[in-house]
Amino acid sequence: MGYVENTVHEIHQLLLAPVGKIDKKTFYIADKPPVDLYEFANGIRKELGARKIRHVPLWIAKSSARIGDFLKPLGWRGVPLTSFRLNNILTGYVFDLQPIMGIAAPLPYGLKTGISRTIQWMREKKEL
């Protein structure tokens, strides 16, 4: 996961890099260090002044996901939680960012600033 202006910075640095440093190589574009989902959600909550995020025990989440799995084929559209969604939430996606960081580090924005700027942009666009 990464903040959009950091992503633009990384792609821009790749475009400016000597061909020998990037040719035939794979680069994962993301923020470093990896963003913890709870920390990310809590940062958004604080910025918006929303109430505290509630934690649901895993057994309740798994049970709810199974109910969602059952309801979805019955035609319920927009089931809030399925096993597929829960698996995506619980799976850690950590990639080797050394190659991109060797070209694009340091990133211009941290997590807190990225959240702040995103919410400011969303307010300007009347999305919030």
Cα-to-Cα separation, first versus last residue: 22 Å
What value does the Rg take, in angstroms? 19 Å
* Mean residue pLDDT: 95
Tell me the strand percentage band.
under 5%
What is the number of helical segments per DSSP (H or I, 4+ residues)? 7
Q: Detail the poorly predicted runs.
A: none
Morphology: globular
H-E string: HHHHHHH
What about the largest sheet? none
Portion of residues in helices? 55-70%
Strands, count? 0
**Structural class determined from secondary elements:** mainly alpha
Describe this structure in words.
- This protein has 128 residues and is an all-alpha fold.
- It has a domain at 1-34 and 93-128.
- 56% of the residues lie in helices and 0% in strands.
- The chain contains 7 helices and no strands.
- Helix 1 crosses helix 6, helix 3 (37-48) crosses helix 7 (111-124) and helix 4 runs antiparallel to helix 5.
- The protein is globular and about 55 Å long.
- The two termini are 22 Å apart.
